[in-house]
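This part of the workshop introduces the protein records we will be handling. A learned vocabulary of local backbone shapes supplies the integers on the structure line. Getting from the letters to the tokens is the skill we practise here. As an example, a complete record with its sequence and its structure tokens follows.
=====
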Amino acid sequence: MRIVIFEKDYSDINTVHNTIQRIAKVKEYPIYLVLTTRKEQSVYEYMTNYEANAYFIMVSEADPHTLELAKKVRATHPAAQIFLMTEQLTNEIDHLSRQLHCKVIEKNAITFANKIEMHFLNAYRAYIQKEQVRTIPVPISQ
């Protein structure tokens, strides 16, 4: 599973990255944190050449570029799992999450790591189920 993390706050980058990495190590999940960045442009450049299975994207109404990034990720990779991380769930972000069919993770110092863990575990299960469906052999009829 390939994962992209876009977050502007260093502390939150560490929380997301370390939480995912710790769970993957304990459960022996084969994951690749292919990009962890504070720059939208890095995500755009990555998407032009590669595809990730999951994107953890920081969004803020005060920074419309982050909202556009989420829209671009969905348009470019319609099957990807997207998680919008936000300080405050506003009507605009809630509407965006429904429009893009993605989950919202509210940043709360007490529960943020737990929410990342829960959403990552669900994303990994969905990824594995999708991969199993893709690899089921089709019998050849005679």
The longest strand covers residues 32-37. The CA atoms of residues 19 and 114 lie 8 Å apart. The mean pLDDT is 92. The two ends are 36 Å apart (CA to CA).
